[in-house]
Amino acid sequence: MMNKSLFLACALFTACATQAAVILQYHHVDTGTPRTTSVTPAEFRQQMQHLKDLGYQVVSLDTIIDGLVRNQPLADNAVAITFDDGFANVFTNARPILKEFNYPYTMFLGPALIDRREGPVLSWPQIQTMQQEGVIIANHSSYHHRLAVPNKGESKAQWRQRVKTDILLAQQQLEEKLGQKRKWLAYPYGDFSAELEALVSELGFIGIGQQSGAVGPGVSLTRIPRYPSSSQFAAMKHFVPKLKTLALPVTDYSGADPVSTTNPPVLTLSVDSSDFRTTSLNCFFDGKPLPLKWLDADTFRVQATAPLKLNHNRYNCTAPSRSKPGYFYWFSQPWVFVSDK
User: Looking at its record, which EC class is this enzyme (predicted)?
Assistant: First the structure.
């Protein structure tokens, strides 16, 4: 689960550790869709204009993922734009804005949902038009079911077969319809588990989440973070600071399985703290600070004092960079709760 080679390749160079790209994540670009997953066209345009005005490099997601895979430093002002689910308003509302700015972007979609016309989704002709214009179309599983853990009454073997079939079916459909062969999977709902990460790696895929954070040394290739930029996060007061973040250089994810049988869950994480003071690292849930304990010079543990009750539960940990004033290291840990019975 850990991209060890990338971390080790950069471990001796602080300059490498302080280079990080940002991946933005959207669903709807519309005024009449659920606010929780939407950004208005005006908000979206404002965000895109800010990227241009501040001189950010809006790059293809290929550029960022290839850099991670090849252990190459990432441009610290690189930004990639992604959309999940394949909603038609991306074609009608976001696409003209992105063409105006000449920004590349990626769409993760579920082929079965497109075939069935489930919801206000794109048509295959629209998708083909976008691809011909240079848009990357990639795997969001075929049916957009939750993949992280077995369903009720489902054995581990049945879960594994279901998930494997879903991922590979979507890949086959995208290849047949579009010739798309990139083995990237954006997890439906952003949910994943250590066991799903292992399966994704076994299948040769890159795994992409919806938890916030920058992309750089120490980021696992089976849990690449993206910044959700809709809902309340569409506001510029939330959008702008995300662009000045760095990837917390994690050296061991073994205590960071998102699946927990206890609530509140425990996060144990080992990091390279050479570019931040351990006393300045803080973790939060729903904007409130969490008690944090350093177990040794490189490993900390954090646990909320009360059960988590949000629909999307995250611990967010941040620390200011010592060598890059104004930038913060950022790590987000998502949670998936299951019964231990």
Answer: hydrolase
Scan for tokens 């994480």, then name that residue: 269
Among 245, 267, 292, residue at a domain's last position: 245
Q: Say if residue 173 is in the same domain as residue 312.
A: no
Can you give the pTM of this predicted structure?
A: 0.94
Here the CATH number for the domain that contains residue 322 is 2.60.40
Question: Distance between CA atoms of 306 and 160, rounded to whole angstroms?
Answer: 32
Identify residue 12 by its one-letter amino acid code.
L
Q: Indicate whether 160 and 229 sit together in one domain.
A: yes
* Domain enclosing residue 288, as ranges: 252-337
Residue (of 190, 217, 233, 273) closest to 21 by Cα position: 217
Angle at 193 between CA 187 and CA 199, to 5 degrees: 75
Residue at a domain's end among 191, 215, 245: 245
Domain count, the chain: 2
- Same domain (yes/no): 175, 295: no
Residues 143 and 270 occupy one common structural domain: no
A 10 A CB-CB count for 155 gives: 9
Q: Residues 25, 226: contact at Cβ < 8 Å?
A: yes
Whether the predicted pLDDT of 10 surpasses 90: no
Q: Return the exposure string of 19-36: e unless at least 16 CB atoms fall within 10 Å of the residue's CB, then b.
A: bbbbbbbbbbbbeebeee
Residue 69's φ and ψ, nearest 5 degrees, are -65, -35
Q: Is the pLDDT of residue 134 over 60?
A: yes
CA-CA distance, 16 to 33, in Å (whole number)? 41
Tokens of 88: 């038609």
Q: Judge if 234 and 313 occupy the same domain.
A: no
Q: Say if residue 241 is in the same domain as residue 256.
A: no
What is the per-residue pLDDT for 7?
44
CA quadruple 180, 186, 192, 193: dihedral sign: positive
- Across the chain, mean pLDDT equals 93
Rg (CA), the chain: 19
Number of CB atoms found within 10 A of residue 162's CB: 16
Looking at residue 214, which CATH number applies to its domain? 3.20.20.370
CA dihedral sign of residues 270, 274, 275, 281: positive
Closest to 269 in 3D by CA, of 305, 318, 215, 227: 318
